[in-house]
Amino acid sequence: MGGSRLTSRMGAPAPHPPWPSPLAPVPPGAGPMLCYPGGHPRTPGKDIGPAYAGKLHSVRIGVVTFPGSLDDTDAARAVRYAGAAPVPLWHADRDLRGVDAVILPGGFSYGDYLRCGAIARFSPVMAELIPAAKAGLPVLGICNGFQILCEAQLLPGALTRNARLRFIHADVRLTVGGTPTPWTAGYAAGQQLLVPIKNGEGAYAADEATLDELERTGRVVARYSDGALNGSARDIAGVCNENGNVVGLMPHPEHAIDPLTGPSADGLGFFISVVSRGDGLPAWGAPAPHPPRPPYPPTDEEAEA
Amino acid sequence: MSDSIEVAGQTPDQQQPYKELGLTDDEYAKIRDILGRRPTAAELALYSVMWSEHCSYKSSKVHLRSLAPGADQSEHLLAGIGANAGVVDIGQGYAVTFKIESHNHPSFVEPHQGAATGIGGIVRDIIAMGARPVAVMDALRFGPADAHDTARVLPGVVSGISFYGNCLGLPNIGGELVFDACYAGNPLVNALCVGLMSHGDLQAAVASGLGNKVVLFGSRTGPDGVGGASVLASSSFGGAEPKSTVFGGAEPGSTAGAGDGRASKRPSVQVGDPFLEKLLIECCLELYAMNLIEGIQDLGAAGVACATTELAAGGDGGMRVDLDAIPLRDPSLTPAEILMSESQERMMAVVTPDNIDAFLRVCGKWDVQATVIGEVTDDGTLTMTWRGTTVVSIPPKTAADGPVYQRPMARPSELDALAASGPDGLARPRDGQALRDTLLTLLGSPCLADKSWVTQQYDSRVRGNTVLAMPEDGGLLRIDEETGLGIALATDGNGRYCRLDPYVGTQLALAEAYRNVAMTGAEPIAVTNCLNFGSPEDPEVMWQLAAAVRGLADGCKTLGIPVTGGNVSLYNQTGANAIHPTPVIGVLGVHEDVRKRLAVGFAADGAQVVLLGTTTEEFGGSAWADVVHKHLGGRPPAVDLAAERKLAALIGSAASAGVLASAHDLSDGGLAIALAESCLRGGRGCRVNLAGPTPTDVFTMLFSESAARAIVSVSPGREDAFAALCAAHKVPSTMLGVTGGSSLTVNGSFEVPLDELKRVWQDTLPALFG
After folding, report:
1. Is A294 a domain residue?
2. pTM over 0.90
3. What domain range includes position A274?
4. pLDDT computed for residue A272 by the predictor
5. Among B44, B218, B616, B760, which is most buried by a count of CB atoms within 10 Å?
């Protein structure tokens, strides 16, 4: 079901192998559930199909470090586990180093002075990133990165203080939805992930018209399955832009890449998605062709198509 | 006109406010003796902070000497007591530095900033050793959970630690949360930080090399925290208030204020900016990597006074400092205030003239303000100038090595009566229903209930190497992705046991932290400690301190591991009410392969549940006696460190061999709580037989707090292999039952569905704190 919808909507070719069940229990000492050639060291090799062979390190994903960024090393690790090469990008350099995609990581850039992400948004690297993103470069903003994307108006809405005014760190279930994006193409619609959130300002907010528009155009890419602990409107955990190439996500998929150090390996899919589409991505600078996005959840007719 | 050394020489009889600064008559006379004249205002300020209890350890030093490890304990030791933090070799070219410190008094006065800057301070100690800080832990003790003031202090402390630690990007991987009436006016906030480095990275707090520059970098210096060491941390609450004019500047309206001294001590609490400290971490690590530093010291208690004195004393020459060069937040500060300021996020480095430009460039890259404020000399004197006059000229070692006191000690008069009034006469649950009620009462009591209300405010995952964090027995960090090398940490203390017997109680705390580390599958290798006690002017408190230190020293010798450093916090009392003597012991262990770690939760159905160790009737100071009967008396449980060693070795072997599905040590609340926790954490029940296998009655089996015990669940099919390991390590083992189902069942006594266990356990703290 999921595969054929992807093919018909996105025009992308190869189907991908099914992801392991995210909520299966992990026996102690089992090691990571997912493993990819060239990614995690010393994991039992698992055949994930010839489509991925030869992709080792040919895909380069930039990870930006602002003063106060914290999860940059973790995002870089996730990129590594996904079989791509992480490229460090410095906030003060107007240079994206020709990467295929960019991640704005979590943390407290500029100490959350003024508003979260308010200062980072004006960094020299953002001066390069904003036009590139508008031209189709895949960009993933995680937590503080999501806040920066909203401040930069690459995504609608804003992230505000949590409902209980307290920082919260918890493992939550997410439902992936919306029309697939370069970052979520590897997940089936409705797939459930177990991923940590850790934030003090994670409540997504936007006016009703914007929220309706996001829903209608399938741009809510992730939702808190059991209700938002941080008070996000409509339980929204992540959204994307009109083109689908810019995704903001409040939870931290880079902390769910290995059951050894996280609640699951469910988050790895975000990074593998963009890596596996590396060759199919339009070079940034050219507008990405994109059909109109269908509403989510799908109507009965579309489900049967 | 400034009080220069010339003016001091000419006005020997000028009255000086040494008492208000916390100095005694004798100490003041000693200073005059050392200098051959009266001290200047700045020198007086400097000596007052350096000789404060908090900085000089003058009351505890004689006792702490016994903690120095012997050769047979020092196999892994790279830097020990006396350094900013202890450093141990963990193999594969890595070294780990760790230390625990207190920030008790500020956390009572201003909980959020007090706790936040406690984290900031211990992190800077770790940076100063040359390491990247990689994790923190917090051991917290408050008054009764339902007390009005606890609702003020606890949320503030937790939000402060959350605010500072999360923003620094340091995972909080464990700690403690204890409620007891004795901490009502004196909460304890002990913060541990652990750092990682390679062997060659070790830095020293030494200023040597004639002509080398002294650089102050980090935040600007302001009036915050002035008097933190001398006034706030070195006296009890509710005592005589310090006069407000001692520092010579305009005072922001501090009055005699509330009886507990809170209002007038507020200016002495420091204010933290974790973003600045994050920049400082990255800046320092880059400076180390480029070899631009000869010596480094962090600025904590007593700020510039302490850093300059210790750097100068550590070296072989002297130092000249120009106080005018220090970047100030408030230009009206006097030299004394500049010296005593405890503005946060500052470090002091010694840099060769050749390296200065590169040093300043690195600081510029990270937007960290850096200023050359002096240089190393060869005259053996610490000299400071201000506005053209010399305001300080002292032999630095005389300030760094403060007085050493042999305080009078007296065995507490209550000890015999306490020991005699034991728990034997307390009413015990007689039938299954009563046992069931007791379990739920204990499980829902604030000390044993689910601590998520606190721990969910901490990021335990940042840096991506946290394998185990609270509520596991120990925090476990992966150090090397290739080999799986890791480190485990635990902090433990028990004020009630120590009140009954400080020697045994301290050894029990050491044993518990040691055991907790071992439960993850790691091998304990080093110890840090935070000794929280009442006033050293009380002979009974001194006796407790001395006994505790002896207990720790003897215990570490028996376990074969060194104390690498630590902290003493005295004056934790309000008026005549001292806290229970509360040594908090931190233990560090090495894990060969974190993928083989063991955790608390029952991980598989149909696994044998085995109790390791021996259970006897030991309820003195127990959670049952406290929660059900509000009783404290009798003897604490017996200590058997040889048994602890065997148990730890067994768990280590079993983890390596992969024969266990879970491991959890027994402590507060005994077997009952341990079983409940393993069920809750694993999401599955168990069925155990407590009446049959041993001669001890079910109540004792469930709630006694005998030491050196653990429960494990054995991987199905590996029962024989595990039994063989128990025999080989000579650890007594008792098969209790099997995991599975959705209830905790004690055959013949009671059954509690997991849902009910969970509800009772989870509801307590949210109901209290919102």
Report:
1. no
2. no
3. 2-12+59-289
4. 87
5. B218
